[in-house]
Every structure is written in structure tokens, then in C-alpha cells.
Known about the structure:
A hairpin with a 4-residue loop joins strand 9 and strand 10 (251-257). 49% of the residues are buried. The longest helix has 19 residues, at 351-369. The termini are far apart. The protein is α/β, with parallel strands linked by helices. The chain is globular, with a radius of gyration of 21 Å. Helix 10 (205-216) packs across helix 13. The protein is built from 13 helices and 15 strands. Among the domains are: 8-132, Rossmann fold (3-Layer(aba) Sandwich), CATH 3.40.50.720; 160-273 and 351-375, Dihydrodipicolinate Reductase, domain 2.
Amino acid sequence: MREPPTPIRLGMVGGGQGAFIGAVHRTAARLDRNYVLQAGALSSTPQKALASARDLGLARGYGSWQEMLDGELALPPAERIEAISIVAPNHVHFPVAKAFADAGFHVICDKPLVHTRGQAAELARTAHEKGIVFGVTYNYTGYPLVKEARRLIREGAIGKLRKVVVEYHQGWLATRAEAGGDNKQAEWRTDPARSGAGGAIGDIGSHAENLVSTVTGLELESVCAELTTFVPGRRLDDDATVLLRFEGGARGVLAVSQVEVGEENDLRLRVYGETGSLDWRQEDPNRLVLKSLEGPARVLTRGNGYLGDAAKAASRIPPGHPEAFLEAFANVYAGVADAIRGDPRADYPTVADGVRGVAFIDTVVTSARNGGVWTPFSSAG
Length: 381
């Protein structure tokens, strides 16, 4: 029997006690035994960082990410971490990613990548110059049927694309949850200094943009955006509607909101071509609906032999047993691990996806500030 590959030695910044997303990243990293978490600077508060590391039984806990970088570089190469996972609030992403990338560590960073186009371009240059792998955890691209939708479109199953509709509906910020002081997620995500220029458009709109780009392969040409802040006293948008124009003539609509009462995490993508359409929802992720001009709709389900190679490789259990959020996240981590090990077929969101996502947020904010005018899109820094 073939021996499993040696796990990649991983460090983590952020994701300490009480942080939802940190536990998700750790679960995803270890699901396929691709990584072993050895070190962490898990909080901006040194005492909490060290306590969190003890709780997790890490070999090396640090009071800050700067201490972690210095401490790991002081170790022999065979003992230090090989990659860093950054799961801290957005304003921390750039300095940490830049420092660890400069030192030659592979980087896995949460989205959106950074605050500005210039920062994003600098990280892309550094990754190229240092020859490191740089992944961005747009986790929804890890779903098997998202990969299948991508394959079907690439192979012409629905013809030339005409229209894309992507929606992301949440309701968790329908009240001013950030004001009470006990909801840390709401507090930093609605703070421009930490979250960046976009609220809902940056938090979940970036996921929606990445899903469209990954699945369709369409190149965005321009946007016309309206950003709204419904909750009084909130400093960033909590609702967004964006019209999209793509190169080649396709059109799209992106609608995201975090103030829709009763909605949980309803991300949905519909793609319409000349001869068919595709429909996928994150809250029902094991089904992909394929419709065509000829015959009835087909419902494709995860884990079956009729799916393409990428979709089959992204599944772990037989059909009928639901796979969802954690497994999709793990597929992103697995793709980064493949790239670190030199597999040219590695399938994961790269730093280029992160750069494009930052440019998208910037372009949408610019369009909205100028009164919702059509604004050309470019991912260049």
C-alpha cells in the first residue's frame, strides 16, 4: 500500500479561543492528514494567544505573530513550520502574509485578501519572487458540484454564456449587533479600519464574485453598483446590488445582503447559456440542476460516477451521505497541499484570485460612491 505523504508543518495566526473560523480552518487542514498544526500566534492579546495554544496542545505557542516568525526562523529548517494559515481579521492579513512570504513560508490566507489593490499586488509579486505557494480560502469553490458546474461550462454543456445571477443572503446583521460589545465578529466586520472599505460586499460579496469567476471563467468588464446601509449607525454597507458586464457580451447580477431577516447562509449561483442553464445552492450543496432546451431538467448529485474527475476527487464518501462546508474547506487546503508538494494539477484559489477579489471590492465601492455609474474593472494594482 502506498504510504500517505508526510504532513506539512503548519502554523496559524488568529483563530484562538472563541473564534469560529479558526476551528473551521483547523478541522479542514487536518481532515485529509495533509497538515499537522505545530505552532500558533492565535490572538492579538499575548495571554490569550498563549492560552489558546495550550488548549490546542500546540508544540509552540507565541504571544504575537512577530515572535512566531522570529521563533520559527531560529529553528532548523527541518523543524520549523512550512506554511502559515492566516485567519485573523482583514487588517492583519497584509503585514503577516508579507512577512512570512518574504521569509519563504507558504501562505494560506482568508478572504478578502487585503484592504488595498497595492497591498494585493505586492503580495502577488512577493509570492512569485520567493517561489512560494499562496492560497486564498474561497472555500465555496471546494464543493464537488461547484467543480462540476465549472467543468460543464468549460465543455460547452450549456452553450455560450448569456446571464449570471449570484445571490448571497444572510440576516445576522439585521440589528446593530456590533454595538453591544459581545459580538466580536459583528464588531470587526463592520469597522472600516479592520474590515476594509466594503461591508457586506467585502465579506460575502467577495465570495459571490469568486464563485462566478471560478465557475464561469468570464472576465469582468465593468460594474454598476449600489451599496446600502440599512441599520442606523453602521459604518459600512450591509446590502449591495451590482450589475455586471462581462467581456464577450454576457451580463450578470450580484445581490448580497446581511440584513435579510430569517436568512442564514443562502449562497446561490445560476448560469444561463444559449442552450441550457445551471443552478447550485450552498444550503443544498449536493445537488446541481442542469436544464437544457431539449428534454427535462437533470439533477446531478455528489459522489456519482457520471461526474467529472475534479468533482469525484473532491468527494470522500458514497452518494447519499451529505458532504458540505467542512469538506469543501478541506478541499481548498488539500489543493494548496498538492501545490506545495509540486503537483501541477493542484486545484485551489490562488493569490491571483485574491488580487482580483480586492480589485472587485474597490471597483464596486468606487461605482457606488460616484452615484452608481458604470465603472471599468481591472484587477491590476
